[in-house]
Amino acid sequence: MNKHKHNIFESIGKAVGDFSMGQREAIRQENNKTNQLAIWISIIAVVVSVASILISLYAFVSNNNSDKQWQQSQIKLLQEINNKLSQVTNMKEIKPND
Questions:
Q1: Residues 17-55 pLDDT 10s
Q2: Contacts from 5-14 at CB under 8 Å and sequence distance 24+?
């Protein structure tokens, strides 16, 4: 009878050990999945960051070009105004007593 009890406890111990090993394997697999998910999220975050940097750089360069174009158009406009004023001034100098 004593030997029989020992075998029962030994069987229970093996079953608990097997169950514990199965749980550890399941936990290890779950941790691997979680780690892979974290890596993919990190990769996506890096890609989004690089894309936002490129978009910001494009916007900066584009805005800088727009400013230069605007400045050039304003300079051209001011030159035209200056030419017209010069023409008006020259006309008055030619005809001072009209």
A1: 666 677 778 888 899 999 999 999 999 999 999 999 999
A2: none
